[in-house]
Design a protein that fits this description.
This protein is an alpha/beta fold. The protein has one domain (6-178): Alpha-Beta Complex (Maf protein), CATH 3.90.950. Helix content is 30%, strand content 26%. It has helices spanning 13-21, 41-50, 79-89, 124-133, 160-164, 168-178, and strands spanning 6-8, 26-28, 58-68, 71-73, 93-103, 108-119, 153-157. Strands 1, 2, 3, 4, 5, 6 and 7 form a 7-stranded mixed β-sheet that branches. Strand 5 and strand 6 form a beta hairpin. The protein is elongated, with a radius of gyration of 17 Å. It starts with 5 loop residues before the first strand and ends in an 8-residue tail after the last helix.
């Protein structure tokens, strides 16, 4: 049995890179879904997946948010908001929560993964220097752990790739269960 090609309902370069890293065949289809700020990541993942025509394929939808002290932190609108978010996360632990939706014409499966991330204490100058990199743009929580944002992090507990943008451990588990022997996960 050959591995089914996933339709990735996302234009995220990070999600594409993770699927390539895992050798999961996929095609990108931009979702026709408008996210509402502060929404549930599982609902957003499902909305993205449901906005793509399934046909004979399996559609993958993913959404990721950052949660600190029970409050959802979205994507910053500008550099000032990015600096405020990073200052809030400095020296503290937050959660990166991703929703995942796998869907075919016959079934739909939803799931969520959480990774705990602890930032090191950050001086105002370090926050300002990171903001000048521009990595914060379009990123929940205003950082990219796979880039220079790695220097902000003291430790993580859970799936690193979830913080990058795709809950890989959850995806691999679900694909292995739905398509036994089809994918080679080494």
């Amino acid at each position: 049995m050959s591995a089914p090609v996933l339709l990735l309902a996302s234009t995220s370069p990070q999600r594409r890179a993770i699927l390539e890293q895992l050798a999961i065949p996929f095609e990108v289809v931009a979702p026709a879904y408008e996210e509402s700020p502060g929404g549930d990541p599982v609902e957003h993942a499902a909305g993205k997946a449901r906005s793509v025509a399934v046909g004979e394929s399996t559609v993958l939808g993913v959404d990721t948010i950052v949660v600190c002290d029970g409050e959802r932190i979205g994507k910053p609108r500008d550099a000032g908001e990015a600096a405020a978010m990073l200052t809030r996360l400095a020296g503290r632990t937050h959660e990166v929560v991703s929703g995942l939706c796998l869907r075919t014409a016959a079934w739909e499966e939803l799931g969520a993964a959480t990774t705990r991330v602890t930032f090191r204490p950050l001086a105002e100058a370090a926050v300002a220097a990171y903001v000048t990199t521009g990595e914060w743009e379009g990123r929940a929580g205003a950082y990219a752990i796979q880039g220079r944002g790695a220097a902000l992090v003291e430790r993580i507990e859970g799936d690193y790739l979830n913080v990058v943008g795709l809950p890989a451990a959850l995806l691999v588990e679900r694909l292995a269960a739905r398509f036994p022997g089809a994918y080679t996960f080494v």
